[in-house]
Amino acid sequence: MKIALIAHDKKKPEMIALCIRYKEILSKHELFATGTTGKLVSSATDLEIKRMKSGPLGGDQQIGSMIADKNLDLVIFLRDPLTAQPHEPDVNALLRLCDVTNTPLATNVASGEILLTALSNNEISKVH
Questions:
Q1: pLDDT at position 127, please?
Q2: Are 111 and 39 in contact (CB under 8 A)?
Q3: Which of 9, 46, 60, 73 is catalytic?
């Protein structure tokens, strides 16, 4: 499966911890991430991750394009709802695309763990 990993700045430590806990599962899949998130997760886990641009510089839009083209199967986007994001329209567009294409989406650690556990139990199949 093709999985996207995205995290706002204040959520990057949580994304790293999540990916460390689920490294064995994630290592069996093709991973994509926005720039800084991908760099930090890769450094902490040695997972192979295809990095897009940083979110505010178009990375969210690149991931969104992959979702629109049905080239992603699952998205984990740890959002920081308490901090204003300068690229909020891009964030909202990405979330909307997940809904339109029926792409599984986790926006916090708890839902990310549920999706990754389901993935490890073969309870999620490719949507596209």
A1: 65
A2: no
A3: 60
